[in-house]
Automatic annotation (TrEMBL):
Pfam families: Exportin-T, Xpo1
Keywords: Cytoplasm, Nucleus, RNA-binding, Transport, tRNA-binding
GO CC, any one term: nuclear pore
Gene3D superfamilies referenced in this protein's UniProt entry, alphabetically: Leucine-rich Repeat Variant
GO terms of biological process kind: tRNA re-export from nucleus
Name recorded for this polypeptide: Exportin-T
Family: Belongs to the exportin family.
Protein's cellular compartments: Cytoplasm; Nucleus
Length: 736
């Protein structure tokens, strides 16, 4: 009555009607009068879109009503929904098209649910027919219309693809639908062109959009892999055609389409077997096409990055088919890679090129000259001071390729000038040489190619001058220390002549942070060379020990609320590192360093330092390390109960101080928590210490421990006797 005169009233009525459908008897709506009216309102041209959209909303409520599958299918079939398919081809932004799009996706979801729930006898075939009928319109809607936020494209398509799993073959209709689903995926993984400039310069908006798309794409790529399992040939051909089209396209091919085609090709590698990755016929066509591709939009950051990542993904194919190595090198080294105008792309290319070099290794030998020539200008640009000043800390990310000789000459000429620019240049040079050294083994530089070893020695000699010229520039000291670490591994024992000078210069600073770095270097030397560094250690130990004892408090370092300052953290780190240092010395047959004439002034301080820590330190692992040190010293410095003492007074100190305080009183303290796994390990070390003391000191230890210690803790006589018996049984662990 009012459809023409008052369409807004009619739309309001329909909207109210829609809200009640979920709980009223569906027969009140699904009947000849109402069904015919609703479709008439949707289909008649000339009526306002608001009214037609409201009618579509009512029908959507009808198809979404919860029902058993069999009557639900009968309802869906009776609606003859194919009558409205043509409506979605109108202007995609209209209210009517949006409402019909919601209706079709809702209808398809319900039909698919019926298809999965019903058997052939109950109408599965009918539901498949209805689904096949509506899917083309649904695929169109997915690519061209705004969809209801409650509808998940990925979820719907995943369920549909799941119906194909386990089928021996797919029908022509199913294969057609697979192709259309792939089209939907390609459309939805494309970035929005409106963010193109933001994504290229990667400003705040660009970063947010990139993060959003990375997350959004995850489910779509999972769907892609699932399709690849049920229809591998169709999927591979679709990706092949997408990529070939992107490669052969003219300049009117936009950035987003090219990036999406490359991303699909990249994802293809996720599902290929090792054999297909190495020698697959598809890759024989696509990889050469990829390596030779130069897109008009290659200057775009997104395109360039996914292009390089895709090449990296298929480097195993290049490894097996070495004729493509020159093409791969060009892609990494020209304006598509390391010479790309975007610094982020260039840096990423350097990293991926490094990975490629590690994979190809000796196969690159014929191309070394070409590689070095291609990198020459990049190295020069890297060591320019303008880039250093802009990004002094972050620029190291790109330090994978360098020309060393030029860098060394620059360092020599600038080493005596103290400007920020020269300091920055020297830092860059050290980082460069450090990175280069990682490519050479000790055997190669000392035996096979000693000239290279000589070059590194000369470099080390030059860099040690930095510690003299710039003794208080912390960043330079850290870089030089890092290089010394590398030379220990690279040069082996041939680094020994340089160590006294290096250690002397590094010891000029006594701040906790510098001492920690120095101790870490000494630990590396001890672990690498063992007793070979005895003489060096004998010289430096008393110096560094006295400095540490002067810096660290004699008791515990403050901890708890209000004490977590940078200064406190540095002291705690120094203490931990020094304990590790003492443990490394003791466990590498170097304990004689502690009792050398030069170290005599530190021995008593060290003993008290270790005793306090093994009894009271809050860190159980440090307590364990200190107990281990004492056990090792007992083994090294004590022969047997009647033998001559190597270190006068040490046996008495162990029996009277260490044994009772650490092995008895500290164990009975309430802080000793046996339910803690680390505490149990500490307890095992304490038990071992008692066994070793009995082996070395015999009754001298046992009588003192039992007669002096046990009465103080009110230990019953029978338990004391059990302890003595168990202690004297070889290889029997204690149990309390």
């Amino acid at each position: 009555m009012y459809r023409n005169s008052d369409p807004e009233l009619c739309a309001s009525v329909l909207d109210s009607m829609r809200r009640y459908i979920s709980w009223i008897d569906i027969g009140l709506i699904v009947n000849d009068a109402f069904t015919q009216l609703l479709f008439e309102l949707m289909l008649v041209d000339g009526l306002p879109d608001q009214l037609r959209a409201a009618a579509a909303g009512v029908v959507l409520a009808v198809v979404s009503k919860r029902m058993d599958p069999k009557p639900k299918l009968a309802l869906l079939q009776s609606l003859q929904m194919n009558r409205v398919f043509r409506l979605v081809a109108r202007d995609g932004d209209s209210e009517l098209v949006s409402s019909v799009a919601f209706l079709l996706t809702g209808y398809a979801t319900e039909v698919l649910e019926c298809a999965n729930s019903l058997s052939l006898q109950d109408g599965k075939g009918v539901s498949q027919e209805l689904l096949n009928e509506v899917l083309p319109s649904v695929f169109y809607v997915m690519q061209n219309c705004e969809l209801d936020s409650a509808f998940s494209i990925v979820q719907f398509l995943s369920v549909y693809v799941g119906t194909m799993k386990g089928l021996p073959t797919l029908t022509e209709t199913q294969l057609l639908h697979v192709g259309q689903i792939l089209e939907v995926i390609r459309a939805h993984i494309q970035f929005d062109p409106m963010y193109r400039s933001n994504l290229d310069v990667l400003d705040k908006i660009g970063r947010e959009e990139e993060d959003r798309m990375v997350e959004f794409r995850k489910d779509l790529f999972v769907l892609l892999r699932n399709i690849g399992r049920v229809a591998p040939d169709v999927t591979q051909m679709f990706i092949r055609n997408s990529f070939a089209s992107a490669v052969s396209s003219s300049e009117d091919r936009n950035v987003e389409e090219v990036e999406a085609a490359l991303s699909l090709f990249y994802e293809l590698g996720e599902s290929l077997s090792d054999d297909a990755m190495r020698n697959g016929s598809l890759l024989r066509e696509l990889v050469p096409m990829l390596l030779s591709a130069k897109f008009p939009c290659h200057s775009n950051r997104l395109v360039a990055l996914v292009y390089l990542d895709t090449i990296n993904r298929y480097m195993k194919f290049v490894l097996e088919n070495t004729e493509y190595i020159p093409m791969a090198l060009c892609a990494f080294l020209d304006e598509r890679g390391i010479h790309h105008p975007n610094a982020n792309v260039s840096r990423r290319a350097s990293y991926l090129f490094m990975r490629g070099v590690k994979l190809l290794k000796a196969k690159l030998v014929p191309y070394i000259e070409t590689i070095l020539q291609s990198l020459q200008d990049t190295v020069a640009q890297f060591t320019k001071m303008d880039s250093v000043l802009k990004e002094l800390s972050g620029s190291e990310d790109g330090s994978y390729v360098f020309e060393v000789e030029v860098a060394l000459l620059n360092a020599k000429s600038q080493i005596h000038e103290g400007s920020l620019a020269h300091i920055g240049n020297i830092q860059q040079i050290i980082v460069a040489i450090n990175a280069l050294s990682k490519g050479f083994s000790q055997k190669l530089v000392t035996a096979s190619r000693p000239a290279i070893g000589l070059m590194f020695k000369q470099t080390l000699d030059i860099l040690l001058e930095i510690l003299v010229v710039f003794p208080r520039v912390e960043s330079l000291r850290c870089k030089v220390t890092s290089f010394i670490h590398r030379m220990v591994e690279t040069l082996g024992t041939s680094v020994f002549p340089y160590l006294p000078k290096a250690l002397e210069h590094l010891l000029t600073e006594s701040e906790p942070k510098e001492l920690v770095g120095f101790l870490v270097l000494l630990n590396q030397l001890i672990c690498k060379f063992g007793v070979g560094v005895h003489d060096i250690l004998e010289e430096v130990y008393p110096v560094i020990a006295s400095r540490v004892f002067n810096i660290l408090p004699k008791n515990d370092i403050l901890s708890g609320p209000g004490s977590c300052t940078e200064e406190i953290r540095e002291l705690q780190e120094l203490q931990r590192t020094f304990f590790t240092f003492l443990n490394v010395i003791a466990t590498h047959n170097l304990s004689s360093v502690f009792v050398s004439p030069k170290s005599s002034g530190c021995l008593e301080l060290m003993m008290q330092f270790l005793l306090h820590a093994c009894c009271n330190h809050k860190d159980i692992l440090i307590r364990k390390a200190c107990v281990q040190i004492f056990v090792r010293l007992i083994k090294d410095w004590c022969t047997d109960a009647n033998g001559e003492e190597k270190v006068p007074g040490f046996r008495s100190f162990i029996v009277e101080a260490f044994a009772t305080n650490c092995c008895l009183y500290s164990v009975l303290d309430k802080s000793f928590e046996f339910r803690d796994a680390n505490t149990l390990v500490l307890f095992g070390e304490i038990v071992m210490a008692q066994k070793v003391m009995y082996e070395k000191f015999g009754n001298f230890f046992l009588l003192h421990f039992v007669s002096k210690g046990f009465p103080n803790i009110h230990c019953p006589q029978d338990l004391a006797e059990q302890y003595c018996q168990k202690l004297q049984v070889p290889d029997i662990a204690f149990s309390f």
